[in-house]
Amino acid sequence: MSDVPHMSAAEFRRQGHAVIDWIADYHERLESFPVLSQVGPGDVRAALPADPPEVGEPFADVLADIETRILPGVTHWQHPSFFAYFPANVSGPSILGDLLAAGLGVQGMLWATSPAATELETHVLDWLATLLDLPDRFRSDGAGGGVIQHSASDAALVALLAALHRVTDGRSEHEGVAGGRFAVYTSEQTHSSVAKACRIAGLGSDSLRLVDTDPRTLRARPDRLRALIDADRTAGVVPVLVVASIGTTGVGAVDPVAELAAIAHEAGAWLHVDAAWAGVAAVVPELHWLNDGLDAADSYATNPHKWLLTNFDCDAFWVADRTALVGALSILPEYLRNAATDSGAVVDYRDWQVPLGRRFRALKLWAVIRCYGGEGLRAHVRKHVALAAEFATWVRTDDRFELVAPPSLSLVTFRLRAGDDATRALMDAVNGSGEMYLTHTVVDGTTALRLAIGSPWTEQRHVRAAWELLRARA
Amino acid sequence: MSDVPHMSAAEFRRQGHAVIDWIADYHERLESFPVLSQVGPGDVRAALPADPPEVGEPFADVLADIETRILPGVTHWQHPSFFAYFPANVSGPSILGDLLAAGLGVQGMLWATSPAATELETHVLDWLATLLDLPDRFRSDGAGGGVIQHSASDAALVALLAALHRVTDGRSEHEGVAGGRFAVYTSEQTHSSVAKACRIAGLGSDSLRLVDTDPRTLRARPDRLRALIDADRTAGVVPVLVVASIGTTGVGAVDPVAELAAIAHEAGAWLHVDAAWAGVAAVVPELHWLNDGLDAADSYATNPHKWLLTNFDCDAFWVADRTALVGALSILPEYLRNAATDSGAVVDYRDWQVPLGRRFRALKLWAVIRCYGGEGLRAHVRKHVALAAEFATWVRTDDRFELVAPPSLSLVTFRLRAGDDATRALMDAVNGSGEMYLTHTVVDGTTALRLAIGSPWTEQRHVRAAWELLRARA
Fold first, then answer.
1. What is the pLDDT of residues B171-207, one digit of tens each?
2. Which residues of A touch B93 (CB under 8 A)?
3. Are B400 and B363 part of one and the same domain?
4. Which of A162, B104, B303, B397 could form a disulfide with A325 if both were Cys (CB 3.0 to 4.6 A apart)?
5. ipTM, interface predicted TM-score of the complex
6. Which residues form a coiled coil (chains A, B) (predicted)?
7. Does A313 fall in a domain?
């Protein structure tokens, strides 16, 4: 039997140090790259060998290829002038916490398969609930608790499954969901993940009711929700889930959660709050109003992997009553039975999510919270909010531009008064320059640009330069 | 505005090198730990401060706590004497490839958001298809293609959604799935992920038909599948999906894929093959028989994160016809529109999966394939298969023990002739010793122990020691 060419410990140290140094260098030279990759379809593949190697190569060759073959095809999400979509922060503590998870290589599917993976996750989500001043109902010492999901899409999906479990008294898992019998409600501004969840969960997109928003604030209108629910109930359709948004994708609108929750609960529906991007901002006391109404929510999701310095994937998801969630998702085959699970004294997180397997994701969030502290996380959020406010004041001073909505936290939505074509041409021009990257949305039928500040490397000068470039190309 | 206490580049280098060294040390001293964590429920949390820190701490303190507060609660999946469940390998190249993904921090949800993340993934899955000798239908240059999913559970779920899309001509996404109208078929030995997928997708567990297996081989019986499908069709129930297993969780049984596929297709159903653990073994020519029948499969999943040296998460999933998958999962809101997507010339992997966001997971698989080469991967698999075969010969020599099934690849299933209680007591005794860890299953009503070999650090002496311990405690 031939020996397996595993990397030796000495070589792992050598190459590992080289990768760490490469990352540190990469972060120091972020500004030397065009933000948006300039390659065309197929360019990256054309630079790769058609066939896998028969004989192993040194890792140093892989690292060299990152530089020459991969980086040209990378859009630099950490670039200080990346203002597209929502941010996806990384940070030193997070990268190293994640590296520890890779090195340990444990599976946290059950408490028994690595108790620390489960208990640190429960603990850190309680910590985060404290930092964000979330209602006690989401803490693990009562009926609720937190868990790390892959993404806010997964959170919306499992919230829907828990809601179906509750509204059908557990029959949905066995009997399935009859299309046309159930309805889900969310604002027309809500992220597409809710529509996707309806499709995945078998309700179909026809079951999704889009609630009109106030044309000025783009917040969901409670009266419209009530009208939709009333119509459904009259028709014999069961309201299952209402999804409220705190910080919509388009313009960062914040729905009136308390009012929506009251209407949802009166109809027997579950109230899930998607605060994927904005929720973490509640780490700052002056933004605690973001949590208004959460004490009536059944579940809540926000993504440290967006704006809280923790690399993907890390969606923090809390439920007020974990029994519905576990009821919807628990299946216990013989090969997963164990004494700890049978005792009922432990949490098995596989029953809180779609997949079975789980990475030790709590390590990176733990590292971030410990290394920044509450103080550091607040400074981080405040800095971006202040930069966005400053950018908005500049937009107001130029007659060619207008704000589409008031700035929301670190997001500014604006457009050219000259109209859609001019606004889109401006976006293409600045993105094509490689000097910055921002994306668009459509509000009330017209195109708007979104400047979302989020990179830890973004300073005032980058926001200033973005504004100067926008003005110059307008 | 106070400055944000980001880790400096110099500090990142220093702490990063320390983490790399810690991981190298950890892997070198794996044998000094009890394989199975010996803590009780709540022990890990009790060692953690109740509240998050207000002021940031040095990362070195986090690393120190890994040693003292986390490791006691870790079950060491990389330990050479870890024989439980199925393996979850890591390797130097994989850890470093994953680290690069964390450092780059890009989102690969769309081709446009980082072309290299998409194109490297497509390319590396073609490479893996070559290495495993998969049918051409799964390659990206035709109608099919590969994608990395979070887990085999996610793969089974999206296969079911694609199957529903196809069988309903795309109506399922809109109208939902009526419980009782559709049926899914898989063997009673198949992993619980299929039952979970039926629940998540809204079909309900009542829609799942368990196909009897041959009592000797534990392979699904085609005649039983045909009978179940005929009964359903007579009753007006639509067969949607048949899941065949290559390497079941219990004993590693391999279903007759070609026969099941023919029956499935005759009934208009989709044939998905779950080869989560075993599939990667086809990297070895003498095990190409594992792929028998795959040229008739509609989709196929195997996990490099189990037995191919790539750390979690990395499920390789291929479809023969990507239009059904994309049809089932694609939703295009305005804020995700872009020229590349509109052109149709690129793949947007968000439409191949449940979540929207995606980590640059191809990097770790690329690093593994390049650093091991086909040669190295073959040596890795062959070594474990040979060790399992040797263990099985030892079991045969001791009258107190018996094999429950012939060894399957690197998995040996066996028991004490003295019966269930003795077998379970033996498992508890050896696991409680901390010297090894294995888990059980139930075959034909009786308890069996599973010895699954998979750690890169496992040598013959570890398997020998496991056998000696089992004999001593029997």
1. 887 877 876 799 999 999 888 899 999 999 999 989 9
2. 7, 59, 62
3. no
4. A162
5. 0.97
6. none
7. yes
